[in-house]
Input
Amino acid sequence: MTKAQNILKVAVTALGRNKLRSLLTTLGIIIGVACVVATIGIGDGARIQAEDQLRSLGTNFLMIYPGSITSGGARAGFGASSKLSYEDLDAIRREIQDVTYISATNRTTQQVIYGNQNWSTSIQGAETDWPLIRSWNIERGQFFTDQDARSANKVCVLGTTVVQNLFGSEDPIGKIIRIKNLPFKVVGVLESKGGSTMGQDQDDTVIAPYETVRKKLLGTTAVGGILASAASNDMVQRASDEITALLRQRHRIAKPSDDDFIIRTQTEMLQQAEDQSRTMSYLLWSIAGVSLLVGGIGIMNIMLVSVTERTREIGVRMAIGAKGKDIRAQFLVEAVALSIAGGTLGIFFGLGIQKGVARFAGWPVAVQPQAIALAFAFSALVGIAFGFYPALKASQLDPIEALRYE
Amino acid sequence: MARARKSAEATVDPSLPVIRIRDLYRIYRMGGSEVRALDGISLDVHRGEFVAIMGPSGSGKSTLMNIVGCLDRPTAGSYVLDGVEISNLDRDRRAEIRNDKIGFVFQNFNLLARTNALENVELPLLYSAKTDLTDAERRARARRCLDRVGLAERWDHTSAQLSGGQQQRVAIARSLVNDPAILLADEPTGNLDSRTSEEVIAIFQALNDEGRTVVLITHDTDIAQFAQRVVAFRDGKIISDHQVADRRRAVAGSFEDAGPPAPESPRPPQPPHGAAVEEPAVAAGGRGLP
Output
């Protein structure tokens, strides 16, 4: 048994004598480290998930919505304005070179009927560029044509959820479904895309020509929104700026605060998702930090108690030849062993939490070795930082006084 | 540092006293007044002596024991232990000296709780500068020391499982393990009944017979009669220093007595010689140590 092994053994034995106390002492560290591990895992999982889902919305896209309008000091809410017109869309299509694809969109929720089945779903109006902007392929059949769009033909493309609920295993292509008592011919089925960031099922939808939805289902002249995409990621911001300038000019808006439209880009949304997960991370990190601090104070407290309790033992050890540094090492190792044990337990708890959350939320959570290393290093550091003072105190005891201590 | 000690050891003349104290003072300042716990004492202890330091409490004998045990430093004067001047050594160096040259035996045994006898005996070896010992060698050495006090069979008992006398024997084994220059026993029988006290004293006498130097601090005149020489203290000064005329021999009794010691069993006083000459039950021969 070397000296180092002996010190370790003494520390482990000392901790083993007060199992409950040792466990309670390390609780702070356990929680702190579990927090660190879970934070990093969940944070990364959530970010990756959000980014994947945002990417699934399409490529390099921009959304233009009618914004709030101010009339006589009273501001109406989001989407209340009908200032966005189809002429605006035409102008964008004509004048903005950076915009590759563009489609007017609108949306309504209706009961859809086929045979004796019915299903409530969202009906989205779109134009032929729409699948290109959303990078959404047709699984069966085809998307409706420009002719269908211009003539406001009653044709539609179904999402897979709608197909399942109305048709079951039947082939929907060429069948007639009824929306608001109007017959629509099914020309295609979209590929399955899964849930979106907001937790909606993106496949629970019916796509019909924009004009058809506007005239037959909504009965309005207002454009619900404009979906556009730029040729590349770099051009998204430029396209956004150009559209802003164009719409301000067309709507005769002098001040940016008076804008009656809103442009959101995919980049912006990604940024926002990242910001959100970062905020969440900061929150969890601060919980972890406070917990480690409290855990460290707990360790210092219990080590001071331990030094006092074992004053006689320290005296005996000194009398038979232990130097100050031997005593210091012994108590420091004890504190570090305590915090590392807590850290190890915390890592397992953290991984457990990660797994639980991953299963519950359906997130891809990977076990990151660097997170575990970090947690481990943190707990060791806490042990050293908070164990040092008690260890120093123990090593500076006067052996004569210590031997006399009752 | 190790080299310094080597050379110091090399020059030690066995005929020189193992403890050589000259004009030693230990003065405590309390507020304005000063207390002379040791007031200019001089004392020599030779190798192989069995010396009892006597005196009532407050006489300075504990202060002397702290200085002789290298736990404390004198205010003035010289103390040479086994050829090394101690009075100006720092904390760490004194810890080394304690480990190497002094075997402590305390009144309240001071074994580590929940630690078995063998590990208690091994403890000084773990703080020793002699790091070349292997695990097995260290263990074997501790076992031999336990055997020396008749407790080899109980090596795995913790202090709670041992009687007071047995605990003190483990403590003696611990004091022997580093083969020290002196055994320094501070009231080693203070917490024991008279029969067990005698057993413990018998071990010290047997060790002394093998040539070990024993310094026994006590306030008990009866116990002092087991030593060869008694040095009496009062008010920080040596008031008498004489050889014991009728030295008593302790009867070891049976070391393998199981269970806790019987309460104060009155024993007829032992005749100073004769019956007590019988070999104590401790293993005889050599110093029993490598």
In short: Residues 116 and 156 of chain B are 5 Å apart (CA to CA).
